[in-house]
Prior knowledge:
3-stranded antiparallel beta sheet; globular
Amino acid sequence: MALLDEFYLKDLAHDGDLLVSPNGDVQTVTGLNNIRRALFNRLMTVPGALVHRPNYGVGIKQFQNAPNSIDNQRLIAKRIKDQFELDFRVEEVVGVQIQNSPETPELIKYIVRVRLEGVDEDVSFNFKTFQEATN
């Protein structure tokens, strides 16, 4: 697993701000957790928001308050597939499921099943948006 952690890279842990460990160092995130964070950032980033990468991002915020129609769900699923497969660690997006709760319709849950480089089984990532600022 150490080789996979190295392949999946290491990044600074943040949740709106950098996270500090008890010894005062900046926390890092590695392995599958790092991929999950990277894909969440890609999901939330609106295309054009990064000047140096204008085509980066799904822009899920653009669908906030939009009808949860089948056409919108298809468009979201296509954007997720197209964008997530641009990450070199993602071999293929196998499926995208969009769920909302009748009790809290503003909470949308995206379950994205991906095949990652170096992993034999598909991995599912759950992302919650709109009600919660973080996943």
